[in-house]
């Protein structure tokens, strides 16, 4: 049995009387790809924000690698080797692909994000930045500014930025959202390639992607954990079919 890297117990988050996450228990095994799925409003992104410190829980606990993180800030959790992407692309439009990755590499040092200091400061990270861009298939676009990238290329660049932090735990919020079939296939292969030695938690609506990537699937409904297990087991669960997966599968066949 793999060790548990992320453990949540009784995790709850209230917003002015509305309970977005309701007593969730979650175990994420080290080295696994763990998918969070469910209909819109199920609490997936709120749960992500609780795991990464962007929100504090109303009650319950989270630990990552044995460290209690429920009351830590997002930057303190990031320092434990946690990196996340966002559902909406969050890039600097006029910075090149290489500059994005160089900044992410520099951020792990005592220099932080002081990119205005000197071009020479960033140059020390150039070789590693180019390695990471090659890993996500963006070598030919290293000098291209983000504003000129296609949508799928922007998501690939975000993944390179996440990898630059050398995370133990990667959280990917809808990595294939808004992509065409070709970009979806490329992203699936990319995640397969970079998952080695890392734990991945992802929110994903595309159930074919979930089926290809996830070792374990957790289904949320109205802030509660409805079902959990391997994809084939979860997709045949009557409660899950009634709540969510049946409709999605019917659309994909």
Topology, pairings included?
Layout (H helix, E strand, L loop, with lengths): L3 E12 L2 E12 L3 E5 L6 H9 L6 E6 L2 E2 L5 H5 L3 E3 L12 H11 L11 H5 L2 H10 L15 H14 L4 E5 L7 H14 L4 E5 L3 H7 L2 E6 L2 E6 L1 H5 L2 H15 L1
Overall description:
- There is one protein chain.
- With 253 residues, this protein is of the alpha/beta class.
- It folds into 2 domains: 1-81 and 170-183 and 201-253, 3-Layer(aba) Sandwich (Rossmann fold); 89-166, no CATH class.
- The protein has helices at 44-52, 74-78, 97-107, 119-123, 126-135, 151-164, 181-194, 207-213, 231-235, 238-252, and strands at residues 4-15, 18-29, 33-37, 59-64, 67-68, 82-84, 169-173, 199-203, 216-221, 224-229.
- The strands form 2 sheets. It has a 6-stranded mixed β-sheet with strand order 6-7-8-3-9-10, with helices on both faces. Strands 2-1-4-5 form a 4-stranded antiparallel β-sheet, covered by helices on one side.
- Helix 3 packs across helix 5 and helix 5 (126-135) packs across helix 6 (151-164).
- The longest helix is centred in the C-terminal third of the chain and has 15 residues, at 238-252.
- It is globular.
- The relative contact order is 0.17.
- Residues 246-253 have low confidence and may be disordered.
């Amino acid at each position: 049995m793999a060790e548990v890297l992320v453990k949540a117990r009784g995790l709850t988050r209230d917003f002015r009387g509305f309970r977005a996450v309701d007593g969730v228990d979650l175990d994420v095994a080290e080295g696994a790809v763990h998918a969070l799925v469910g209909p819109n409003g199920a609490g997936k992104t709120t749960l992500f924000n609780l795991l990464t410190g962007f929100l504090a829980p109303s009650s319950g606990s989270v630990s990552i690698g044995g460290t209690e993180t429920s009351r830590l800030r997002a930057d303190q959790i990031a320092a434990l080797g946690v990196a996340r992407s966002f559902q909406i692309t969050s890039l600097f439009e006029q910075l090149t692909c290489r500059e994005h990755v160089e900044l992410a590499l520099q951020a792990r040092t005592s220099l932080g994000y002081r990119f205005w200091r000197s071009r020479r400061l960033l140059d020390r990270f150039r070789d590693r930045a180019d390695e990471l861009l090659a890993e996500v298939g963006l070598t030919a676009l290293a000098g291209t500014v983000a504003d000129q990238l296609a949508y799928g290329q922007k998501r690939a660049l975000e993944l390179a930025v996440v990898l630059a932090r050398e995370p133990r735990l990667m959280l990917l919020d809808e990595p294939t959202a808004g992509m065409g079939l070709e970009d979806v296939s490329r992203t699936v292969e990319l995640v397969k390639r970079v998952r080695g030695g890392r734990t991945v938690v992802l929110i994903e609506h595309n159930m074919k992607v979930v089926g290809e990537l996830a070792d374990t699937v957790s289904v949320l409904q109205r802030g509660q954990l409805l079902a959990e297990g391997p994809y084939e087991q979860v997709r045949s669960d009557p409660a899950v079919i009634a709540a969510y997966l049946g409709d999605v599968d019917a659309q994909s066949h």
